[in-house]
Specification:
Layout lengths: L2 E3 L6 E3 L1 E4 L19 H14 L3 E3 L8 H13 L1 H6 L1 E6 L13 H15 L4 E6 L8 H13 L3 E7 L3 H14 L4 E7 L11 H8 L2 E5 L22 H4 L10 H17 L3 H10 L6 E4 L8 H8 L4 H10 L2
Length: 324
C-alpha cells in the first residue's frame, strides 16, 4: 500500500484509509447509536484492513456515540505497541456524542471533546484532528485558536477541515496566517464520480496553499457500487432506506443511465463497479487518499481490485464524462 504525505503536515497516510463511521452506529446519527457494525465485526474489519496495508484509520467522536473510537482504542491495545505505532489515527469533532448532546466548534467544547477522544482511543496524541463540519455560530478565530492550543500542547499533530466549502477554507487560512495560529493542513470532503464539485472550487484552494485532500463517500452511498437499480426497490438496510437525505438527487433517468454505462465499463475490465470507482479516485492527482468504509470484511475486495487497476489518462476522462 502506497503512503503519501498529507499536505505539509509531515504525516504520511495510506492511499486508502479505513473509514470507521459505521462501528457501533451509522455515522453520527443518534437514532442509530448502538446499531451498525458490532464490535466483533469491527475488529475483523480492522484486522483485514491492517493486513491489506491500510495504516490510517478515520473516525469521529460522534460515530456510534463514542463506540467507534472506543473500539479502535481497544483494538490498538490488543495489537500491541508495534501495530499501534504504525497506525495513524484521524478523528473529528462537531456532532453530538449522545442524544440531546451539544455540538459545535467552540473553544471549551473542542478542549473537552479532544480529551474525551484521547481517552477513548488510548492515545497521548491524536495525529490528525478535524473539524467535522463548519460551525456558523462560532467565529473561526475561536475554533482555530482551540486547535492551535491542542497542537502547541502536543495533543494533536495537525488539524484539518471536513465538509467545508472553498470560501470557508480560504477564510480560515487567512485567519491562521494573520493570527499566527495553526492552520487547516488538509481537507476531507465528499468526492466521487457522482460528486465532483470540489474540482472547480476546493482543489484550487488546496493547490494554492499546499493542502492535502481526502475523499470520503467514494461510492456515493452505494450508488456507484450498483446497489440501486432502475425500477427496483432499494435494498433493506441500505443508505437509501436509512439515511437517504443527500442522495435523493441521484434519483433520475440520467443517473441510472450513467450507472448502467459505468457497469459495462467495469465488466469490461473484469472488476466490480466499486473497484472501478475507487481506482478512478486514486488516479485523480489532487486526491491524497480515499476513505473507504466497509461494513463487512468481504467489502474490502473492491479495494484490492482498485489497487491492481491502472487507468490511462483517456480512460479517466471517459469515465468522468459518463457523469458530466
Amino acid at each position: 500500500m502506497q503512503q503519501r504525505e498529507l499536505g505539509r503536515t509531515g504525516i504520511s497516510v495510506s492511499r486508502l484509509i479505513l473509514g470507521c463511521g459505521n462501528f457501533g452506529g451509522v455515522g453520527s446519527a443518534p437514532a442509530f447509536f448502538g446499531q451498525g457494525i458490532p464490535r466483533e465485526e469491527a475488529f475483523r474489519i480492522m484486522d483485514a484492513a491492517w493486513e491489506l496495508g491500510l495504516t490510517t484509520f478515520d473516525t469521529a467522536d460522534a460515530y456510534g456515540g463514542g463506540r467507534s473510537e472506543t473500539w479502535i482504542g481497544e483494538w490498538l491495545a490488543a495489537k500491541g505497541a508495534e501495530v499501534r505505532d504504525a497506525i495513524t489515527i484521524e478523528t473529528k469533532t462537531f456532532n453530538p456524542v449522545e442524544e440531546g448532546g451539544d455540538r459545535g466548534l467552540s473553544l471549551s467544547r473542542i478542549r473537552r471533546q479532544a480529551e474525551a477522544s484521547l481517552r477513548r482511543l488510548g492515545l497521548d496524541r491524536i495525529p490528525l484532528y478535524l473539524a467535522h463540519d463548519f460551525d456558523p455560530s462560532i467565529p473561526q478565530e475561536e475554533t482555530l485558536g482551540a486547535f492551535d492550543e491542542l497542537v502547541r500542547a502536543g495533543k494533536v499533530g495537525a488539524v484539518g477541515a471536513s465538509n467545508h466549502t472553498a470560501e470557508q477554507l480560504a477564510e480560515a487560512l487567512e485567519i491562521s496566517e494573520l493570527g499566527g495560529l495553526a492552520r487547516y493542513e488538509f481537507v476531507q470532503n465528499s468526492y466521487s464520480l457522482l460528486e465532483q464539485d470540489d474540482a472547480e472550487t476546493v482543489f484550487p484552494v488546496c493547490h494554492e496553499h499546499g493542502l492535502g485532500y481526502e475523499a470520503f463517500g467514494p461510492l456515493a452511498g452505494g450508488w456507484l457500487a450498483g446497489r440501486y437499480r432502475r425500477g427496483e426497490p432499494y435494498p433493506e438496510g441500505s443508505r437509501m432506506t436509512q439515511r437517504p437525505n443527500g442522495y435523493r438527487k441521484y434519483e433520475s433517468d440520467e443517473v441510472f443511465g450513467a450507472l448502467e454505462a459505468f457497469e459495462r465499463e467495469a465488466l469490461g475490465r473484469g472488476v466490480s463497479m466499486a473497484g472501478l470507482a475507487i481506482a478512478w479516485l486514486l488516479s485523480v492527482p489532487e486526491i491524497t487518499a480515499v476513505v473507504v468504509g466497509p461494513t463487512r470484511v468481504e467489502q474490502l475486495q473492491p479495494v484490492r481490485e482498485a489497487l491492481a487497476l491502472v487507468l490511462a489518462h483517456d480512460e479517466l476522462a471517459h469515465l468522468r464524462g459518463l457523469f458530466a
